Amino acid sequence: MESLLSYRSRFPIIERSVYLIxxxxxxxxxxxxxxxRDYAETWATRGxxxxxEGWWEMPLxxxxxxxxxxxxxxxxxxxxxxxxxxxxxxxxxxxLRGRRNRIVYESxxxxxxxxxxxxxxxxxxxxxxxxxxxxxxxxxxxxxxxxIDDETLLVPISHVIFRSGYLQDVAAIVGxxxxxxxxxxxxxxxxxxxxxxxxxxxxxxxxxxxSVKWLCGGPGAGFLYIRxxxxxxxxxxxxxxxAHREPFAFADQMDYSPDVHRFLxxxxxxxxxxxxxxxxxxxxxxxVERIRANSIRQTTRLIEMALxxxxxxxxxxxxxxxxxxxxxxLPRGAxxxxxxxSRDILVDYRPGAGLRVGPHFFNTDDEIDTLVTAIDSLLSRxxxxx
Length: 386
Ligand SMILES: Cc1ncc(COP(=O)(O)O)c(C=O)c1O
Prior knowledge:
Elements: H1 13-16, E1 18-19, H2 31-46, H3 51-55, H4 58-69, E2 77-80, H5 83-91, E3 102-106, H6 111-124, E4 127-131, H7 141-147, E5 152-158, H8 170-179, E6 183-187, H9 199-202, E7 206-209, E8 222-226, H10 228-231, H11 270-286, H12 288-308, E9 312-313, E10 326-329, H13 333-342, E11 345-346, E12 348-350, E13 354-357, H14 365-385
Parallel strand pairs: 1-11, 3-4, 3-5, 5-6, 6-7
Antiparallel strand pairs: 2-8, 7-8, 9-10, 10-13, 12-13
Helix pairs in contact: 2-11, 4-11, 5-6, 12-14
């Protein structure tokens, strides 16, 4: 088995920078450039035949790779451009006008997801229940469970909270939701590629995510998982010809495909799928268990160094409750991030949270130390200027 550090040569950007921003835009594998060249070559030389020679089935073939990464069965995942589209597509399968129309989620849910539910609630009269967080970092699972009742239709939650890295107890939430007849949508954007999990074992009804972060797959390749036994029961209103049983019949009436194709809509974003595949292959090759073990070691190292300096850590200290990123609240954090970038140390900043750091399997412990030393020097400069 290759050592994790041997993968460094596959990621060009880490020769030029300390790349600790994989929770935001995962580093591009060098092989992606070849795949994008393949795309152009295929289009240029095979033209219209490209559809039947692979393009048409790509949203499902690529989806099956992700299914392997997420412990889901083949034929349960389709590709879409992003999470926002997928969440809207899920909502378009459901009737929000009945008595069971409560939508329960955590206040720390990803804003785009909240915007979608709030807009649908306004338009269709559904009721939103937002479960607050006491500390802006975690969500009390008991509170989530209490908020889910027999009028709850949907529980769309994040697996790992984007602004704190808190890992939710999904099994407990699904347990309650299913006891009262509600469906759970799990947004795995911040967990897929960073930690092992099984959608089948968790029992969620839907999942959404994308490739921009830990999957190192770049923008434009989002995905939607549907629990296999639900597939045939749902008829998305956000649909299109690619969801038809016989798309090339161009029939006047919709007749949904019996399988997961029914969750497609229009022409798939083929270049984004080419761009994403090398990232998935690399994560499959490395293995999420190894990625997780390395991440726990490096994020723990970072947290210990931060606490030793008296910095406030806005992420769970217990690794079992933490995803792949660590948030550190520092005075003038946005300015520190800018200064770090000018030294080619890349992290990001989220208002109300702090400086976010996301090491991936190809990062070294030395890079964590370089970041901390650079922050030390910027803070001492701030101190001497104050
Ligand atoms: C938890 C979570 N969900 C969703 C997204 C992105 O959503 P979309 O794919 O619609 O851009 C992000 C990315 O920033 C995220 O962290």
